Amino acid sequence: MPHTVRNLYSEHALDAKQVIVIKIGGSVLGELSAEFYQELVKLIDQGWFPVIVHGGGPAINQMLAKLGITSSFINGLRVTDGVTLEVVQMVLNGKENKEIVKRIQMAGGNAIGLSGIDQHMIEVEPLDPQLGYVGKIKQISCHLFSQLQFQNTIPVISPLGMDQKGQIYNINADTVAQAIATQLNASKLLMVSDIPGIYQTVKGKRKVLHLLTREEIDHLITEQHVLGGMIPKVEAALQCLDHGIDEVYILDGREKGILTKVIDHQLVGTKIYKARGAVG
């Protein structure tokens, strides 16, 4: 969903060529290998500054089910009342976020767990009254990242934000990753999930589409080849292209050596890019 954010990131700007934002979906968090995190840490030695944004939908679903709380969704977004919000905060900040930090540090790196409410990083407003405490990003402050880059510390960010009155909101993680990538002028946004990319079904067989332009994505959406949870990923990718990000990848994080393959420009997952000469 298109949104406008005010960029509060002005001092000590990062080297745009080095920033790589990696969104890790909740569906794949429990399946990422030690090698994945080792590759992630090696990115720093290769001159990259990785910024991690993560989801946690499946773990949130499990905790809500244990507590006997029923979830409902509108257009793929979780309706978040006060009780559900407490569970979302507990799972995202207390479990998933710290698990990623732990895994990065076990792989030999430095990491710090944050959410969008820390240092007023993400200010939000309500997205839709029907959704309850689900936020739309209003502005982002990224001044903290230059210090973390200098310290070779990987930020791991959970998708929560806060309004001017101090109310916390849940935010779609794909949207957070896109907004942070845009504000940091990242070279790449990687969306790591448990699927190999965007695919078409041809004669009953799935075929991964490795390279897609904006025009081709629009056609796939029209023909209903892009459905369900893939829609916010694709929308985030197109927002990135509109704001100057060169490349967005949709990847299967379980594939051996996946991060190295992307850096080495191998044909993996789905790469979404703006065609030369295209107008955003």
Automatic annotation (TrEMBL):
Its main subcellular localisation, reduced to a broad class, is cytoplasm
- Establish whether keyword ATP-binding is in the entry: yes
- Enzyme class per UniProt: transferase
The Gene Ontology biological process annotation of the record reads:
L-arginine biosynthetic process via ornithine
User: Where is each Aspartate/glutamate/uridylate kinase domain found?
Assistant: 19-252
* InterPro entries on file: AceGlu_kinase-like_sf (IPR036393), AcgluKinase_fam (IPR004662), ArgB (IPR037528), Asp/Glu/Uridylate_kinase (IPR001048), Glu/AcGlu_kinase (IPR001057)
Biological role: Catalyzes the ATP-dependent phosphorylation of N-acetyl-L-glutamate.
Name the EC number(s). Answer: 2.7.2.8
Q: Which PANTHER family match?
A: N-ACETYLGLUTAMATE SYNTHASE, N-ACETYLGLUTAMATE SYNTHASE, MITOCHONDRIAL
Cellular component GO terms held in the UniProt record: cytoplasm
Organism equals Tepidibacillus decaturensis
* Domain of life, source organism: Bacteria
- Kindly list the residues the record flags as site (Transition state stabilizer): K23, K233
One Gene Ontology molecular-function label = ATP binding
Q: Which gene encodes it?
A: argB
* Protein name in the entry: Acetylglutamate kinase
Pathway in which the depicted protein is active: Amino-acid biosynthesis; L-arginine biosynthesis; N(2)-acetyl-L-ornithine from L-glutamate: step 2/4
Annotated residues that bind substrate are located at G56, G57, R78, N170
Q: Where in the cell is it found?
A: Cytoplasm
User: What does the record list as coiled-coil region(s)?
Assistant: none
Catalytic activity annotated for this protein?
A: N-acetyl-L-glutamate + ATP = N-acetyl-L-glutamyl 5-phosphate + ADP
